[in-house]
Design a protein that fits this description.
Blueprint lengths: L12 E7 L4 E9 L5 E8 L4 H21 L5 E8 L8 H13 L4 E5 L5 H7 L20 H20 L8 E5 L3 H12 L3 E5 L3 H11 L2 E2 L12 E4 L18 E2 L11 H8 L3 E2 L2 H4 L2 H7 L8 H25 L3 H18 L7
Parallel strand pairs: 3-4, 3-5, 6-7, 6-9, 7-8, 9-10, 10-11
Antiparallel strand pairs: 1-2, 2-4
Helix pairs in contact: 1-11, 2-3, 4-5, 4-9, 4-10, 10-11
The protein binds nicotinamide-adenine-dinucleotide.
Length: 355
């Protein structure tokens, strides 16, 4: 059943774990460890069926292989899911049981936070295993990844503006930012510093008001942020924002933002290309966060080394944009292809899989 599942992509390992006392029901998927130990978040969600949880962990772990290899990290791709409601089912016993499950893999998978999981939860896992990352205290703690994510997104916007609009400067470039949380607010600061003209939106009016007050941005209703007459649309809220409904309303020539899973389905990437919209693949442009978390793996943390890797996002995106033009293919397909090629090259070089 698992081997025939549409999202099964020759994953190296899928581990199912159950601890009746704490209520733990968990799945860890290690997709590929060619580049190093698999690293990716742990998600807690009240999945309607176990099949939904399996599908999610298979899809997300492959996504982490692509994201990590495109960020140039010595990490493979993995992910884990805990089946349960994060509002009611959390306990120290559950996270410790999960920590033991991670420990049983001997470092082949490194867990970090994801939807439904906080840094505090990861700290509890860390009482049973050292194979966790994204902590906010300890010798190599990397802290909040959002400023690094936002810096990468800012550089990615510059790469996309250069490619599509032919300018190196963001002065006067109109950018619509959707979602003004951790990533969106840091991004607005950088864009405003460069003289970009900001149109912003958040479902919480006070978040928007702060950005309006600080940067002289114009706030609009969340239902129309994607349809603004701007040069760049920067989704920094939830996934699926580029879909059959939003696409005909899009006026921007560039879509480049920090949100995960911006395309409702992969085929939207082709439609964006047909419309002449340059799309910066989400998992490449938002790699700054995982680059920062990865700085913690190995026990040392160097801000300079991390910034250098985040800065490489600009060149990686420029390569994707050029290749997409040369091959007349959507940027999301080109990014996936490049990720697969990098993994294949790693394998050909005999980079050892984690035993
Ligand atoms: P966040 O929760 O701090 O911010 C999200 C903001 O979006 C919130 O202020 C929320 O009110 C707003 N929002 C939600 N729905 C909206 C809508 N329909 N219209 C307008 N605003 C809306 O989250 P974050 O950490 O800033 O992450 C933002 C996105 O970036 C997410 O998709 C996340 O998965 C992705 N991401 C974040 C990081 C990171 O380092 N934090 C790294 C990689 C990817």
């Amino acid at each position: 059943m698992l081997f025939d599942a549409p999202d099964f992509d020759n994953h190296e390992l899928v581990l199912f774990g159950r601890d009746p006392e704490s209520g733990l029901k968990a799945i860890i998927a290690v997709h590929d460890t060619t580049m190093g130990p698999a690293c990716g978040g742990c998600r807690m969600w009240p999945y309607a069926t176990e099949a939904d949880a399996v599908k999610d962990v298979l899809r997300l772990s492959r996504g982490m292989s692509y994201k990590n290899v495109m960020a140039g990290l010595p990490l493979g791709g993995g992910k884990s899911v805990l089946i349960g409601d994060p509002k009611t089912a959390k306990s120290d016993a559950l996270f410790r049981a999960f920590g033991r499950m991670v420990e049983s893999l001997g470092g082949r998978y490194i867990a970090a936070e994801d939807v439904g999981i906080t840094v505090a939860d990861v700290q509890v896992m860390g009482r049973e295993t050292k194979h966790v990352a994204g902590l906010n205290h300890g010798a190599a703690a990397s802290g909040d990844p959002s400023p690094f994510t936002a810096y990468g997104v800012y550089l990615g916007i510059k790469a996309a503006v250069k490619h599509r609009l032919g300018t190196d400067s963001l002065k006067g470039v109109r950018v619509a930012v959707q979602g003004l949380g951790n990533v969106g607010s840091h991004l607005c600061q950088r864009l405003a510093d460069d003289g970009a003209v900001l149109v912003v939106s958040d479902i919480f009016a006070d978040q928007a008001k702060q950005v309006v007050d600080r940067h002289g941005a114009t706030a609009v209703d969340p239902s129309v942020i994607h349809a603004q007459d701007v040069d760049v649309f920067a989704p920094c809220a939830l996934g699926g924002v580029l879909n059959e409904q939003s696409l005909p309303q899009l006026k921007a020539k560039v879509v480049a933002g920090g949100a995960n899973n911006q395309l409702a389905v992969d085929a939207i990437g082709r439609q964006l290309r047909t419309l002449g919209v340059l799309y910066a693949p989400d998992y490449v442009i938002n790699g700054g966060g995982i680059i920062n978390v990865a700085g913690e793996v190995g026990g040392t943390y160097s801000k300079e080394a991390i910034l250098a890797k985040v800065e490489a996002i600009h060149g990686t995106l420029a390569d994707i944009f050029r290749r997409a033009d040369a091959e007349d293919r959507p940027t999301n397909e080109v990014a996936d292809q490049m990720a697969r090629e990098r993994l294949a090259a790693g394998r050909a070089k005999g980079m050892a899989k984690v035993a």
